[in-house]
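Entry 14. Structure prediction run on the chain below.
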Amino acid sequence: MQTFNFSEVKANFAGLLEQVGRGQSFIIAKAGRPLAKIVPCDVPRQASRLGFMEGQATVAADIKEVGKKEIAAMFGLNR
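Output returned:
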């Protein structure tokens, strides 16, 4: 496990977090004395929500016509 001084962590924080995201741990030290151990979370990632309601709703075939007359009337387009 790698050890980084506090100043190195401040300068390279984003890169170190990417390493943690890939499953690597590291130690933060100040004046050569270990202060903290950074480890990846063991919380499972949520599955993508894309398509989570697939098959649970339908869209009317004439969806483009719904409310067309009312909208035209609001803008004075009934000629």
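The longest strand covers residues 33-38.
Filed with the rest of this week's runs.
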